Structures are given as structure tokens and as C-alpha cells.
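pasting for the record
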Amino acid sequence: MEGLFNPPPRPTGFSTTDRDEFDVIIVGAGMAGMCAAILAHDRGAEVLLLEASDEVGGTTYKSGGAMWIPDNSLMHVLGIRDDRDSVLRYVVQVAHPDQYDADAEYYGAEEWQWETIGAFYDNAANAIDALVAAGAFRVTTWPSFTERYPAIVSYHPELDNSIQGFFRHLGPAREDGSAAPGADLVDQLGVAVRSRGIEVRTDHRVQRLLQDETGAAVGVGGTWGDPIYARRGVVFASGGFAHNADLIDEYWRGPLYSSCAVATAQGDFIPIAREAGAELAHMQNGWLYEDILEKAAMNRVNEDKGIPVPPGDSMIYVDRNGNRVVNEKLVYQDRNRVIWDRDKNGDYPNRVLFMVYDDYVAHDTKPTLFWDKFRTPKPYIIEGQTWEEITERIEARLKSLTSVIGDFELAPGFAEQLGQTVDRFNGFARAGVDEDFHRCENMSEYDWHGIPRPGNEKNPGMFPFAETGPYYCVLICGMVLDTNGGPKTNSNSQVLRSDGSVIPGLYGAGNCVASIAGDGYLSLGSTLGPAATFAYLAAESVVQEAPRDTEAARARYTADTLTTSQNS
């Protein structure tokens, strides 16, 4: 996808004034925020879009741009229809595997989870149709990476290998109809926002929700000074909390060294929602990925999208003992879980894994999904002619990273065990069957791996290591594209209190609220599909709110300010 390498710039040139009152205030100018702004505007609302950064687009700009949309209109053109119950069941299986029960009500999901999953299914296709009709963006079906399949394969073909599974994946399209990445999606959204004259204020970080005497949201305050008021409501679409160390320490599942999220993904909505009485959920969850540890150590904000799939066939991941611990070609969400496994002492023994590969992979030049991160030479690539030599160099590298990862050492006998592990893997590769982790046995892994090397007829994702060095190693750590936990919401994207009641006038969409995907990754587009859908639902609902008395809110805010200043 050419746009990944030559993306359009982030949009600029938006309207701005010094007005302090609107119908709807939307916080965050990524996918969810811009979609909500466009739709609310087109339904007659005066809209203000606030963005904490100095530029719009958020993490969406860095994304692949895909949207997972069941029963979408492009499926219908092909004569393909989805079954509601089958899709909802699939979502529960992926999002809440520990809760899933085929015989239970809602398949084991909690009622609020089932409600939002159902709302997503019932409205996802309508949301995309509405946005396309509004000129917000163009869409196409997401293609297969290998062209072996009619479209990209579902991430979980073991749960759903239906024809529908291929065509639920949409993505932004260029004018010629070709698939484009997230930067093009943001570019198209930016044009739609700008052409409508929707006011956008960058460098406006929201820090406070203003509520009237009933608890309804009537405005926001933040880094810019005087508050801004909303007659009908406030929609938060401000992203996750991947770059807020305090929230990560409080909620996250373990060591987190980097994230693809933009630097402003500080979880601004979390303390605001808590103070307003919202109930939080899924706070330990996120869109799991891996990063190269030494790149993460230099910059926590990942700029090259991490590791969608580790490259090559003569390649394995091993732990500090020299043992394989995972199917290296699993979809990233599931491949990554082993990194956060805890031992009986509460430690994270896999917080660093070791990607080991041979000279063929290090110099492979065929087109890939991972660009050239693992082609030599690179300063973070460790090289050795033998397992003993590469072990010595890994140990030295780990010592140099103590300030990042703490005390972390290879186990005694690592070199010998690594050699045995490679020998065992080579046997599996010759036979074409991975008896330990079943690598590349499903369509999704095959599709993501890409075209096999010439002469590899047994298993496209496995090939014996070269009998002699050089061999290579890269240190791998966990990252997230972004977190996806936050306040619970309902089928209208309204934020919920712990008793299940709504906080009037307060809405949320995208990674700042609890995702319908739970602890799973539904498939490609699991972030942006729901983001667009719940932005649509928020816009549809907020514009129908009865206007609130902002004069009373102004008086209340002034009284609060005077009281605070007198007590300080």
C-alpha cells in the first residue's frame, strides 16, 4: 500500500473563532471525533471540535485505516448477507473467551456488553453508509495480502471460516478505488470537516467536565482558559491512556514499553469520567502488539507501527531459557499475550523475548508487511556466527538496557538450549507441521505471512535454519496500539454510572471508552469500525437532546471559580 510510505500530510486550515457556546462539543479529532462532528453538523447542530495536539488525526493517521463492519453494503452488492446471531456469538467468543458459554443467556456476556455488541451490529453498516453518503470518506473491501483469498482473511478462521468473514473488512479508498491507509482516511475526513466550516481548535486539552445541578454535561474547561459551553452535550473521543504512566501502573496488565498511539493519548477522559460518576471497565485491555525493545527504549511513542507479523520462515521467538513460547505467526493480539504472563513470584519472565533468525531472513528482499526492520545492518540487530557467540552478545546487550528492563538475564545453558530448540524447529519445518504451536496452519497466518520463499512447498511460514551462521537476534517487548478500556457506555454511546443510569449529555466513542472487543481483536479494523459506529450513535443521540440552560451553568461555574479562588 503506497500510502504507508508516502502519506498525505495531516489536514490543516480549519475554521476557528473565539465563541464560547455550541450545541455539541466533541473532544478529540481522530476517527471517532471527526465522524461525530460531521454527522452532528449535518443534523443541524453547531459543533466545536477540540484537539489536545497541535494537529488533527490522532492515532488514526498512523493506522492501517481498516474498519470491521459486519453485513456492510459492499457485501450486499456481492449477494452476501450476515446472520446477526452468528456475528454476536463470534464477538462474545473473541472478546470474552473466559465468559463464553454457548448455552447461557447472551452467550455468557454481561447484559451491558451484549447491548453494546448488538448496537454495533445493528448500526455499523448504517454508520458507514451515512458517512460515505456525507462525503466523509470512500470505502473499499480490504484486499488479501497474498492475493490467494478473495479478501483479507478473518483473524479467527477457527471460529468463523465463512465467506462473510472475508468481506467484513472495509478500508478507505482513493479516488481510483484502490485501498489506502489511515493517513488517507484522515485526509478525507479533514476535507469533509473543513468544507463544512466546522470549528476546530487544536492545542486545546480538556481537563474538566462542566455539569449543571442535575449532573448533565454542559461544557468543558481545559488548558486554554475560560470554559466553553454545550447546549446539548459533550462527546469524548480522546483516545486511550497508553502514554499515561500513572494510569498504566494503576490499571495495565504489566510492563509497557511503547505504544503506537500519539503522545496525547494520556487518558484525559478517565479522571474526568470518574469524577462525573462513570463506571470503568476493561481497563487492563488494549490492542496488543510488539515492538523492538531498543527502539522503544529510545522513544516510547512508536512511529513505525511496531511488528504486525514477525518476518520470515526460518525465524523463531524464544524466552530467556532458549525455548519457543508461542506460535510466531499468530495474529498480533494473541501472539502478544505471552509477554504479560506472570510467574508464581508475580514477575514477568517474558517481558523480553528474543527473535532469532538466519541469514536468509536477514537479507530477504521480497515485499513484506514489516518493511526492512529486520534486514541487516541495524544497530539493534545482534549478530553471531554461532549460538555461543550470539548468546554472549545478547547478554551484553541486556546489561546495557538495565535502566529500561531492570535485572533481566539469560538462563544458564541458554546457548545449548537455543541450539536444541532450533534443531527441533528444523525438524518441524522439514515435515511442514509445527507439533508444538501449529504455526501457519490457518488461513489468517498464511495470509499475513505473505508469499512463501521459492522451494518451500511444505508450510509457507516455516523453513529450516541454515546449518551455519551468521545468525541474528532482535530483542522484543510488548506494546499496544492503544489501550481500549474506559467508561461503560450504552447502545446510544451514553456514558453510564455504576447503577446503570446515564450521565445526561455525556457521550463517548473510540479508545477512550470500554470497547466491545473486550480482551480480543475481532479482526482487522476492530478499532476503527466500532469507533465510527459509536460516533454515529453518539451524533444521532446528542443532537436530539433538549437544549440546556447554559446561563445557569455560567453562573454556577463563576460561583465555583470564586469559591475555589477564595479558599486557595
